[in-house]
Amino acid sequence: MDLALIIFKQLIILISIAVIGFSLVKKDLLSQTTISQLNTVIVKYLTPLIIVEAFFKPIHQELIIQFFLAMIIYACFVLLRIYVGHWYFGKDEDGVSKFATVFGNVGFIGIPLTLAVFDPSFVMITTGLFLVTNFFSWTLGLRMIRVKDKEPKVKFSPRPILLAFLIGAIIQVLNLPIPPILSQGIHQLNQVYSPLAMIILGAYFVDIAKVSDYLDWKLWQTAVIKLIIWPLINLFMLLLIPGLSFETFFILTMILAGPSAMMAALLSQLVGGDYLKGAKIVLLTTVGSLITIPLILNFATWLYENYYVLGGFMNG
């Protein structure tokens, strides 16, 4: 089956689950406090478990090379987007929009989509991009949306993710056997990740569901930049970079074309910024990505198969 079609079907499923989360909070069956606690469970426990599980199977050296290559490329693209965003939006203006055009929803959207189309071992690449996203979000990204020199109430800690990578690396290097009952238990627990993440995402949209909230053309401008303009620019740039396997090329394109990160709302709330504007952009790009991601990925696949001649070991 065409990978873009798989992505489209998976997005339909994920957004449908998000609607359930929206409905549960709207009907007071879930509180925002509970949603916040579930978010902590995902970030601190389920995401690290997914990373560890990616190391259960033997990992070819080429995948490790692709992992570091993807992180370097992604970091460069993030820095490029930040630089252009400062020029386009103005250095000290509209920080929320700038942030939203730079950072994608790697955790809640990227990881489930990767699991939908590739072997779980390739989640290692996506989680590497997830780590880069979080690092830049809480450093340069925070400076974009900071208001009146307020300090954020919480700080980013990469320790759970880094610890998961360390544990996974030890398993690989020492070739440690994983008891079937443990691997099966972790695998079943990780099946909760995608639906739980989307329930949380849907819950965040309860306060911004009115159609009248989206009459501001600047919201649509930001969405077009995030979902169409930057993904196409980055896609053609990827064609010029040698050594990318199809999986790495596809995952990078998918993440770069993804909807704006929920951090656009969460960080702006922490520093006294326009939290609702950030949430509106996230919702608009999440729904819009249902159309744009499959189209861009289908185009990217065609370009890779016909014009990318510098692929790596796993091509074909």
From TrEMBL:
Q: Record keywords: Transmembrane helix included? A: yes
The UniProt entry's GO CC annotations, sorted and at most eight, read: membrane
User: InterPro entries from the entry?
Assistant: Mem_transp_PIN-like (IPR004776)
Q: Which residues cross the membrane?
A: 6-25, 37-57, 63-84, 121-140, 161-180, 192-211, 223-243, 249-269, 281-304
- Give the superkingdom in one word: Bacteria
State if Transport is listed as a keyword: yes
Gene Ontology terms: biological process:
transmembrane transport
Subcellular localization, as worded in the UniProt entry: Membrane
Give the way it sits in the membrane: Multi-pass membrane protein
Name the principal localization, coarsely classed.
membrane
Swiss-Prot/TrEMBL keywords: Cell membrane, Membrane, Transmembrane, Transmembrane helix, Transport
What is this protein's record name?
AEC family transporter
Which species?
Facklamia miroungae
